[in-house]
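In the previous chapter we treated chains in isolation. Here, by contrast, the input contains two separate entities that must be folded as one system, with a combined length of 689 residues.
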Amino acid sequence: MRQKTIWMRFLVIGISNLIMIILIISCSKGDVEYKNTTNFIYKNNSVESIMLQLFNSNNNNFKNYIVEPQKELIISTTLEGSPNGLNQPFAFNSNSNNVAIKVILKFNNSDKCKTYTEGEGVLFLKAYDNFSLDMYNSTNNTLIYIIDNQELNEAITCN
Amino acid sequence: MKKIFYFGLFYAIFILNSCSEEFQTTTTSFTNAYEGKLLNRKIETDSIILDNPYEISNMKASLDRLKTLNPNMAYELKNFIIETSHLYIKFNPKTAEEEALLKSDSTLYLFDYRLDCEYNEEFLKNRESSSNDSIPIYYTSIKKDRQLPNINFEIISELYIPEQDTFFNDILDIDKYLITYQINNKTDLFNHLLFEAFVKTGNQDEMLEPESTAENRWIFGRKWKPKGTIRIWDNCGADALRTSMSISEYGNFIPLEGAKILMRQWFTVDSGITNSNGYFETGTVRGHARYIIQWERYQYSIRTGNFGQAELRGPNLKKEDWNKDINNGEELFHGHIHRAAHHYYYKNIKNLRRPPQNGFWKPQMKIGAFFESDPNINGDYRCWARFMGILPSIRIYNPNNTSCNIYGTTIHELAHASHSNMGGRDYRNTERKVKESWARGVQWDITNMIYNNSYYVYYNLPNYTLVVKDMIDSDNYTTGYDQVNGYTIKEIEDALQGKRNWNAWRDNIKNLYENETENNLDALFSYWNQ
C-alpha cells in the first residue's frame, strides 16, 4: 500500500514537471521589443550642393540637411524593433512631427528638386545602393544612398 | 541529462523560495518624549511593530477600565460587551494559482506588508526590490465570519473595531470630543473606548487634536470622506523638441483615470477609483487615514520588477484631500503603464478583444515595471509566464522613455497577449512578421485614441511593418504602394483568427469583407513583404 502511495506521488510530480517543460519549450522565446540601430549614409556625388528637406505628416518642413559635393551625411537612428534588420529612414522617434513621410532633394545651384514619398528613393530601403536581404539578418546595418547626376537629371525646377 | 538536473535544481529552488520566511520586521522601543504631554513616536530603525489598540485584549481591558471608572453608567452601556469582530490575518500563498485565487476577490484588500507596523518609507522601497524573488505574504483584516478562499492563512490577532460595530451607528457626529472619562451615553462610550485603547498602546497622538493639552484632551469626532484628485505628468510631445528644454521640463499634467486609491486606518480599508477627471472618494472615516495608490485592478497588476505589488504610499492625513501630482520616479513609470493597461482592459478599444481575463486557472495579468534603463530591450511578452502565473507575462523597461512611448510599448505587449489568447497554439506557430505587424497596428490605433494622431509608429523591417495602419488610414491613397483603406481594426483582428502566415492573413481579409480597395491588398502585403 505504502509502495503504491510513493509510486503515485512520483507520477504526479513527473506529469506536472512534464507539463511545465512542454509549456516552457512551446513558447520559450517570447516576443521581445529590441532596440535596433541603423546608420544611413547619403553621399553627394553630384557637382552641386544639395539640401535634403524633411516633411512630416502635417507637411511641415521640420528638418533640413545640406551636403556639399563629394561629401556625405551620416544619420544614425535607434528605434524599437527586431535586433536584426533595418529601421525606417528619417524616423527619429515616435512623435509624428519628427518622422519624414516626404523628402525633397534640392540641388541648390540649379534650383531643381526631386520629391520622394514613402516607398520611393531615400524613403525606400530597397532603393539604397548597398541594400541586400542579408541585412535583415544582421545587426547595426549601414545603408548607403548615392546621390549623383542621375537624380539631378530627373529633378525638375523647384516650386 | 544535465538539462534535467538543472531543471530539477531550478524547481527545488523555486519551491524553497515559495516557503521562505516572511519579510522580517524589527521591533524597537518608542522614543517617548513628552512635549505638551503628547507622545511623539519616532522611527529610529527600519520599522516598528506597533502595540495594536484594536487587539481584542486591549479593547476589553479598556472597556473594563471605563466601567470601573463609571460604576453608575446606564444599563445598556454597563451590559455592553466586546467580542471579536475582525481577524487580522496573513496569507501565505504557495503557488501562483493560490495567489490568483486570493486576488480574484476584489473585496479583499491585500497588502504585502504588515498593517500593524510603521515603516521607514525608504526601507519599504528597498524591501520591494530585495523581495523580488518569491510570492509575497499578504496581510489583511476580515470580518470574523467571512468565508475565505482555501488558502493557507494564519491569524495574527483577533480584533474588535468599534468604528465598524453597528451598536455605535447612532452616535453623535460631532466635530471634536473632549475626553472627561464620564460615560453617559453611547457617544461617550465610543470615544472613550477608542481613546483608552490608543492610550494603553501608546498611540494616542494619532487621535488628539492639535489644541489639546494635558488637562483638556480633544479627540477627533466628525467623520470625513477622504477624497482628492490625482494627475500625472505627460511629456509625450517632448520627442518633438529641438530646443534646450529637457524632457522632464516639457509636458503638462493630465488626470489619472482608473487608479485604485486605498484609504487605510489601521485595519479599516476602503477604496475609490479615479474618474476621468482624476477625482476619487472613498468611504467615511474618523481621524487620520493613509492614502495609497495600489497599481492594480482586478484584471491586471503592476509589479515592481518580477514580484512585489507596485504601490504609491501617500500621506497620513486627517480631514484633508489628497491632491497628488505624479511627476517623477517609479510612480510616474507605474502610472503610465497603468494608463495603457487600464485603456486596453476597461475603456473603448474599438471592439477589439480584451487581453487575457482574470479567473480561476487564469492568473491575473502581471506587468513587470523594471525601473532601469536597458540599452537593448524596451519590453517583452512571454506567453509561458502566464501559464506559470508567477512571473510577469509582460515586462516594460526604460522609465526615461516619454509617456506615449511607455504607453505605446505597454499597448503593444498587451496586443501580443490578446493575440495569444485567440489561440495559443496558433499564436506560437505564427510568423513573427504577422505577430509584430499586428501588435504595431494596435499600438498605433489605440495609443492615438489618446494622443490625437501625434504618436507615430515607424517600421523596422522585415518584421515590424505598418500594414495594419495602411489598411485603415487613407494616407497615400491616390499614389504609391498603399492604395488600401477603410478596414477597421476589429475586422483585421477577426481575420487574424487561426491564420499563421502573411498571405493567409491577407487572403482571409479579402474573403471575409467587402471593401472597394481590396484588389490593392496584394500590392500592399507584397510591399511590406519586401
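The radius of gyration of chain A is 26 Å. Chain A has two domains: 1-30, 34-157. Compare these points with the single-chain example from earlier in the chapter.
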